[in-house]
């Protein structure tokens, strides 16, 4: 909140003549007939009256100090809220920080004759003794994309450009949702079917289930960068 001196654009050490001059100038500009508003007009007049009635440079300094402290405390509260939101959700669930993502490789579907549309796909996967690179769970922090989280967990999911310009990193979202800042590659039909790009996608639901390395799903092979180019980009 501005102090009366700030509202009038006046130096706190100004004398009475300066006060009157500043008031005249400001009140004219604040008048509704000169492009101001009734609210601004009232604000300038109240500021002027406050100084006339004894609001001092010392009061001004105290108010500025208080405003700075309140704003600092507000920022701290906001920061804490952000952290607390993630931490408390994780703590409440008794699990690591972040969104829980259950993953399954498309290769495992092939091996067991499952399809992406099987209602109990992940239940069936949980009952098999699958390798960690094919099935498991990771936790994605709000700062990471799904691909980054997979890599942090040591998983070798495919990718190439890392910028949303190919489909090498595509995953099929079976449960939950993965939000992408933009999409210039996937068709609306693919989007409707839950296909997303893991290199730019961040989970927006508390839990997710995804199938990765889905290059054999219709239409995706054509959107992928060829192996040589993909290798070059992923090693850059
Ligand atoms: S790696 Fe190219 S879009 Fe994700």
Automatic annotation (TrEMBL):
Pfam families: DnaJ, Fer2. GO terms for molecular function: 2 iron, 2 sulfur cluster binding; metal ion binding. Its cofactor is [2Fe-2S] cluster. PROSITE patterns: 2FE2S_FER_1 (PS00197), 2FE2S_FER_2 (PS51085), DNAJ_2 (PS50076). Keywords: 2Fe-2S, Electron transport, Iron, Iron-sulfur, Metal-binding, Transport. Residues 3-72 form the J domain. InterPro entries: 2Fe-2S_ferredoxin-like_sf (IPR036010), 2Fe-2S_ferredoxin-type (IPR001041), 2Fe2S_fd_BS (IPR006058), 2Fe2S_Ferredoxin (IPR053441), Beta-grasp_dom_sf (IPR012675), DnaJ_domain (IPR001623), J_dom_sf (IPR036869). Residues 54-87 have a biased composition (Basic and acidic residues). Residues 126-216 form the 2Fe-2S ferredoxin-type domain. Residues 54-94 are annotated as: Disordered. It comes from the Archaea. Belongs to the 2Fe2S plant-type ferredoxin family. This is Ferredoxin. It comes from Haloferax elongans ATCC BAA-1513.
